[in-house]
């Protein structure tokens, strides 16, 4: 079957080419490979959010976002920290990625998940050259790597082009391939992770791991730019993309709309399992009147996005994540698994919809989208932390045009606005690439910072897009990453 795939590392394209199959098959081949190739952004200890379109046009949201331990002592964490810690054992929630792969494989894939896991295990054992983006992350996170024996033993001071082997991860992947995901959710891999975290002061137990469930539900839907947009519901920030699309005119995102949507997300997004979420206010970008910029841990890099479509109209947009580069800064040595820090997205403010609570899922930055534009279907997503809706909104007009060149669209210059997540303190700053049509005057009038970069950067995201249109299959992969597209 002919497919189109966009992914941020060429090893993912090679795996998809070897796999063949439909859009789900090539997406899973890419996804399982990327935890080996881009281990700073995603790993077997991370989470997964996806959208899947059936050939009949039905779109499903797949949320495999892990929860906080049931035994978490919220008062103790609140007493020791002004905000939710971003590193160490406390922001580690149950890793959802393997359960997410399993759910996706059961939605129409033609190859068993074990096929992809064994292939990824071989790559981890034999090794892959360190990609430039991974090398930059190793430099940027050298202190965290040096502080953790597990990370230090695997990544050390590896440089671009060095052969990086992950034998313990290879063994874990083979165990999951042979024994199923129960090896993580209740079995020996999960037991080892829970014991490791408990030794560091986490309340995580094997019962927490075993209780993980994937949520498969209807997406949120909105109309904008002459197209229909599908996004994942809370606890992800998909609704924030719908809010920002309302602020796009002639391809340009309005700064004030972006800031308002950010503020609404920061104050209103949480886990619907724990209480009602005000979706109307989130769609309208209406934050509480006394809201300001929420301080948040910086989440650089954080995710990988990949998109795939096939000639039957099946489509997948899939994002998997560690949150920050190398997640929590912890690698469990026996399993070789890097553990995410998605729990760093929790608030510690009592009454906040996203407040840390036993068994709660944290607010998520992951924002995959599926687009119906005339006779075309586009799978669309990006890396970029909290800025993902802004990044996608700036590319949206071109992506929604069935005649556009997707490679040109995903590479266009961009800007983002944020606070602590951009590394400029707790105040707001606009970060703009050299040739971006950025709102410098608007930032000045609003009294917020403005910084023009010297070159395009991964901090403005890695956008991936795949399309089935009247002219057939096409795709675009962000030049800020190390990947490309596969059509065939």
The strands making up the biggest β-sheet line up spatially as 6-3-2-12-11-1-22
Which parts are unreliable, with pLDDT below 50 for 5 consecutive residues or more? Answer: 292-301
Helical stretch count? 17
Q: Estimate the mean pLDDT confidence.
A: 94
Q: Portion of residues in helices?
A: 25-40%
Query: Roughly how many Å is the radius of gyration?
Result: 20 Å
Strand coverage percent: 15-25%
Largest beta-sheet characterization = 7 strands, antiparallel
CA-based shape: globular
Structure description:
The chain is α+β, with helices and mostly antiparallel strands. It folds into two domains: 3-216 and 302-345, no CATH class; 223-299 and 367-478, Glutamine Phosphoribosylpyrophosphate, subunit 1, domain 1. 32% of the residues lie in helices and 21% in strands. It is built from 17 helices and 22 strands. The protein has helices at 10-19, 23-37, 74-80, 97-105, 113-126, 132-140, 142-147, 149-154, 167-179, 188-199, 206-210, 238-245, 255-268, 279-283, 388-399, 406-411, 440-446; strands at residues 3-7, 47-53, 59-64, 128-129, 163-164, 215-217, 220-224, 227-231, 248-249, 252-253, 303-310, 315-321, 330-332, 337-339, 369-373, 376-383, 415-418, 429-432, 449-452, 462-469, 472-477, 484-487. It has a seven-stranded antiparallel β-sheet, with helices on one face. A hairpin with a 4-residue loop joins strand 13 (330-332) and strand 14 (337-339). Helix 2 (23-37) packs parallel to helix 5. The protein is globular and about 55 Å long.
Quick structural summary:
The chain has 488 residues and is an alpha+beta fold. Helices cover 32% and strands 21% of the residues.
